[in-house]
Amino acid sequence: MAVKISIVEDDAPTRQILASWVGRAKGFRCVSEHASAENALDNLPKEKPDIVLADINLPGMSGIECVRQLKPEMPGTQFVMLTVYEDADHIFNALAAGASGYLLKRTKRAGLLAALSDVQAGGSPMSSDVARKVVQSFQRLPSGAAETEHLTRREHEVLDLLARGYAFKEVADVLGISVTTVSTHIRRIYEKLHVHSRSQAVAACTQSARGDERWRTPPASALKR
Q1: For the chain, which domains are there?
Q2: What's the longest Cα–Cα distance across the chain?
Q3: pTM
Q4: CA–CA separation, 132 vs 126, rounded Å?
């Protein structure tokens, strides 16, 4: 079954290019296009796309605020920002709002389609420049800013594998547990870290575990049961 994609972009030529890229790609289907956040708010809950590609700089309401309002109503939909902004404020505001990925508009077609596949598989795709800014920002935080000490060993193992880019099924295979059990661990991780997305949990883990060897997950081969 094709992955359903919706696009929220006010620039018509850009919107058409994105729709064409998605429409011509095997395994994807562009189900809707929206020129404003307000239009997306009215229609996306009814359209139920799997992934929403959203610009930030929209007329009226911003793309970030649009995601913030839609995510609680559409928890099963993944939101990926596609924007020209690469400053830390926009990046973290988008992730805090519920975005699962953050791509720059200079991303080429192959990179965009790979990112869509990644987010559908449970990943959190980011352009390399964006990922570097995320790491740098957390490296500047005070030690202990992320409270990961309350996680169990298994929860640390799950979170470490997520940080390496593993999809939920891959985490289950490596640890020898079911996907349902992985989901349960992830829900508990979110609760303990007070976060609401995989991106936020991974970022918290990256900052807190920097230089701490206690919870480093062994190679995948050593974890298989």
Answers
A1: 3-138 (3.40.50.2300), 153-223 (1.10.10.10)
A2: 53
A3: 0.63
A4: 9
